Each structure stands twice: as C-alpha cells, then as structure tokens.
Amino acid sequence: MLIPPAPPEFTNIARFDEYWTHTKPLNSLFAMVSTSANVQMNDGVFKIQREPKHNVGDLVPRPGQPQQFAQIYTIDADEALQNRCRNLPTVGFKLKQQPRQEVLGLIEAMLREHHPLAMQFKMMKQQLEEYEAKCVEEGKEDA
Fold this sequence. Notes:
By secondary structure, this protein is α+β, with helices and mostly antiparallel strands. The protein has one domain (9-29, 55-135). The chain has 6 helices and 2 strands. Strands 1-2 form a two-stranded antiparallel sheet. α4 (77-87) packs across α5 and α5 (97-114) crosses α6 (116-137). The chain is globular, with a radius of gyration of 18 Å. The termini are far apart.
C-alpha cells in the first residue's frame, strides 16, 4: 500500500518551528481517543505489558462538561479551536498567543478537511442536529 502524499495544508503548518518543537503536546490536543498501557523501558527497549487500552468516551459530552477527544470534532471549528486553546496549559504547550493560534487553526482545518474520522464526525453532527430538530418539531425536547 502506498502512503498518500501529505495534504497541501501541511506545508503551511511545517513552516512553524512550534510545530516541530511541540509535537507531543500538539498530538495530545488533537487526539480522538485517550490511550493507556502498562509500559516498561528496559535496556532501551520499550515494552507494553498486557493490552493497550483506547478510551473513547461518549459521543456527546454530559451536560455541563466540555467536549474532549473525538467529541471536539462534532462542534464548530472555531469553537473547537477555542476549546483546544483553553487546554494548552494541561498538555504543556507554552507559546506566545499569535503563533499558537495560527498553528492550531491550520492543524484544525487540515484535519477537518482530510482526516476520514473527522469527516465522519462532521456527518454525525449534522445527523444529530437533524434528529434534535425533528424531536423539537414533534414536541419531544427531552430526546
């Protein structure tokens, strides 16, 4: 299988030093799931003990809770960007305001345009909105 070429937007992202020096925190900000595993490092060898776990969470956040992981892809891109900016300190991303906003915005736009799962979450959001509108129309606001 051939690896597809990088999206053209990646060229704009790659020009920022912040992208290359903060890869791990950026990866955490844009993760669709939380992963965990029992790991050990012996003699330079990284070993995973037992099974790694992927914690997906609910498709929609509980009332009063912020969106996280894949849930972020079901909201408007601007709102998602604000949400990610609020989470920057929790992942160790310490940058001046301007470059981080631009880097995060470019990554957000690229993922929403090219990532197959992000596109499916966008479709799911549209279906959820249609369902909620139908429930309101039928007088079932609690659905």
